[in-house]
């Protein structure tokens, strides 16, 4: 049985999907973006906000960053990898999750970065 996880501390879905879905002990968090910062030109702030959004959703499910076992990072421009990685790395100082990072042609609402995660209680 699945349970829908929702918090007002993270952006509401912009389509027919949930912020996260909990199935038994596994939480699937939809890709998070920082719409309000996408056009600011401050990729560090944008990435920070994305990670904060993920943290709020994890907290709503009774979890934290240590519960993340897998993440997927989608970048508008792979040249931004080092900058995004710098911010992302602050959340995983030990035992980081498995991860892939890919450049995509376009992201929702023309943001620069989107991150989704899977966490296990």
In short:
This protein has 121 residues and is α+β, with helices and mostly antiparallel strands. It has 2 helices and 6 strands. It holds the Pfam family Ribonuc_L-PSP.
Please give a structural write-up:
The longest helix has 18 residues, at 43-60. A hairpin with a 2-residue loop joins strand 2 and strand 3 (26-32). With 121 residues, this protein is an alpha+beta fold. It has one domain (2-120): RutC-like (60s Ribosomal Protein L30, Chain: A), CATH 3.30.1330.40. The two termini are 16 Å apart. The protein is built from 2 helices and 6 strands; from the N terminus they run E-E-E-H-E-H-E-E. The protein is globular and about 40 Å long.
Describe the secondary structure blueprint for this structure.
Blueprint: E1 2-5, E2 20-23, E3 26-32, H1 43-60, E4 68-75, H2 81-89, E5 98-103, E6 113-120
Parallel strand pairs: 4-5
Antiparallel strand pairs: 1-2, 2-3, 3-6, 4-6
Helix pairs in contact: 1-2
Report the order of strands and helices.
EEEHEHEE
Structural domain tally? 1
Main sheet, how many strands, which sense, barrel?
6 strands, mixed
Could you say what the CATH architecture is? 2-Layer Sandwich
Q: Please report the distance between the alpha carbons of the first and last residues.
A: 16 Å
Keywords, separated by commas or semicolons:
RutC-like_sf; 6-stranded mixed beta sheet; 22% helix; YjgF/YER057c/UK114; alpha+beta; 60s Ribosomal Protein L30, Chain: A; RidA; 6 strands; 31% strand; 121 residues
């Amino acid at each position: 049985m699945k349970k829908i996880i929702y918090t007002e501390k993270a952006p509401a879905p912009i389509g027919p999907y949930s912020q996260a879905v909990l199935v038994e002990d596994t939480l699937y968090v939809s890709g998070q973006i920082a719409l309000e910062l996408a056009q600011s030109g401050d990729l560090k702030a944008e990435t920070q906000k994305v990670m904060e959004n993920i943290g709020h959703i994890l907290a709503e499910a009774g979890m934290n960053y240590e519960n993340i076992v897998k993440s997927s990072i989608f970048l508008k421009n792979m040249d931004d990898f080092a900058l995004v990685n710098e911010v992302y790395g602050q959340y995983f100082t030990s035992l980081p999750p498995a991860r892939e990072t890919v450049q995509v042609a376009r992201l929702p609402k023309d943001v620069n970065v989107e991150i989704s995660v899977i966490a296990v209680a």
